């Protein structure tokens, strides 16, 4: 079996995992998915015991690690925060240790991270050279990336996919917003002046495909469009795309009451991020501007 055509994906059932799996298969790759049961395939992870089996007889060109619990699914209790950490850091560490032990490790590891790495700032614009922040999401992203060290030490070219807000009607934040926006129960959050850094799902997939080539880059890459918008602008663009005339503003106090710690970490503060490495790869984004992006992906 040609190793250049074999890709292993973790977190393959999520929005990103489904999209990149489909794109790879359309390009002729053989996609293997890390399963949860021994009987389901040659690559599996038994979460209860922490055992990962990677079939050494199947040579892999690359691994795309997208494993991790949904950040915004629940309020951040102590238990939930531990699940968020373990599902990312511990899973990534176990996978990378297993990859390092293979007789022929893959050449490439694309491992998910997030622009939360940089923390929040009302004035600064971050790029891949910027320092890490100090809040929960920043520390989580730092630990997540550090967990790839066994793979790096084994000589695997490792890239950290620092995702911005990935936009698609098939999943993630946008899917959860469409119905409330159509019902006019959600609109501008807080002051509306906090900034957001986003990318379309199609562009995120395009970048990941480029990173699987010999010309790919190592280290961090920010998966963002570079078109930084305020929450108010985002709400206006979404409103226009779904033909709503007016939307309510949700006061900061209500947002904090609803979401707790998550409100100030991810909803009410600014995250202005651009990417130097996307330009280095020479990629022309399909959706560089928010209004065109939303109008395109929501047209059906």
Automatic annotation (TrEMBL):
Residues 250-297 form the DUF1731 domain. SUPFAM superfamilies: NAD(P)-binding Rossmann-fold domains. Coiled coil: none annotated. Residues 7-217 form the NAD-dependent epimerase/dehydratase domain. It comes from the Bacteria. Belongs to the NAD(P)-dependent epimerase/dehydratase family. SDR39U1 subfamily. NCBIfam families: yfcH. This is TIGR01777 family protein.
């Amino acid at each position: 079996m040609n190793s250049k055509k074999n890709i292993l994906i973790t977190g393959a059932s999520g929005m990103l995992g489904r999209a990149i799996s489909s794109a790879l298969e359309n390009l002729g790759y053989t996609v293997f998915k890390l399963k949860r049961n021994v009987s389901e395939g040659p690559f599996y992870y038994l979460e209860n015991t922490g055992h990962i089996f990677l079939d050494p007889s199947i040579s892999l060109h690359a691994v795309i690690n997208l494993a991790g619990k949904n950040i915004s699914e629940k309020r951040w209790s102590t238990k939930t925060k531990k699940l968020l950490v373990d599902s990312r850091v511990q899973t990534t560490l176990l996978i990378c240790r297993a990859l390092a032990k293979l007789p022929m490790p893959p050449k490439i590891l694309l491992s998910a991270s997030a622009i939360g790495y940089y923390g929040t700032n009302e004035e600064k614009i971050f790029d891949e050279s910027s320092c890490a922040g100090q809040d929960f999401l920043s520390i989580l992203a730092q630990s997540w990336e550090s967990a790839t060290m066994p793979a790096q030490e084994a000589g695997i070219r490792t890239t950290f996919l620092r995702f911005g807000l990935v936009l698609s009607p098939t999943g993630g934040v946008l899917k959860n917003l469409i119905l409330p926006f159509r019902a006019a129960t959600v609109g501008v959050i807080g002051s509306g002046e906090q900034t957001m850094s986003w990318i379309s799902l199609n562009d995120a997939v395009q970048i990941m495909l480029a990173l699987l080539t010999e010309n790919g880059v190592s280290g961090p890459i920010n998966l963002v469009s570079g078109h930084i918008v305020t929450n108010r602008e985002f709400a206006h663009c979404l409103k226009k795309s779904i033909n709503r005339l007016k939307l309510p503003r949700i006061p900061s106090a209500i947002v904090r009451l609803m979401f707790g710690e998550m409100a100030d970490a991810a909803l009410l503060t600014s995250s202005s991020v651009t990417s130097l490495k996307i330009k280095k790869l020479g990629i022309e984004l399909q959706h560089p501007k928010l209004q065109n992006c939303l109008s395109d992906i929501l047209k059906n």
